[in-house]
Amino acid sequence: MESDRALIPALRKAGALATVDYALAFAVLAVAGWLLFTAEKGTHASFRFGLISIGGAAFCLVVNGVMLVRGRDRRPMFRSADKQFLATLRQGALRIWLFGLLLAVLGSGVILLVPNSHPFRPRVSGTTMAIAIAAAAAAVVAAGVSALVLRRAVPKP
After folding, report:
1. What is the dihedral of CA 43, 56, 145, 112, to 10 degrees?
2. Average pLDDT for 119-135
3. Which of 71, 133, 140, 150 is least surrounded, with the fewest CB atoms within 10 Å of its CB?
4. DSSP class of residue 117?
């Protein structure tokens, strides 16, 4: 079989996890977009900034899915290129997850702290905040799972 020639045999079933990553990233982006466009007129601009940051965390989830698929479909070339590729996958998975975590924490913090701190602006409801924070948490957890699977499957160079 052609998949038996893969560089990383432990990632043969990574396509299913990548599909989940893509679907969840799309869902998080849809929720953030929905909250962004249904926000009450006059809502503080930081609320929109927080939602954009959460969308950035969802984009990090897409990048993790791409790394999973790329690691699965890579064919062996020559030893030095394979070592560099493996090191890039291992380090990249951790770095993109940490960047997504940073974006999600930044977005959630801004959403929690700033929009309701101004007395003359419309208030953001607790339900809206909870939905945004749940979307950010879902993106970060899924990206963490993908990074963990990738780091465990990819051998150290």
Report:
1. -20
2. 88
3. 133
4. S
Please tell me the distance from the alpha carbon of residue 52 to that of residue 57, in angstroms, as a whole number: 9
Q: Classify each residue of 15-25 as buried b or exposed e, where b means 16 or more C-beta atoms within 10 Å of its C-beta.
A: eebbebbbebb
- The counts of H helices and E strands in the chain are 4, 0
- Region of residue 23 (phi > 0: left; psi between -120 and 50: alpha; otherwise: beta): alpha
- Spell out the residues 6+ positions from residue 55 whose beta carbon is closer than 8 angstroms to its own: 28, 29, 32, 33
Model pTM?
0.85
Q: What angle do CA 34, 111, 33 make, to 5 degrees?
A: 15
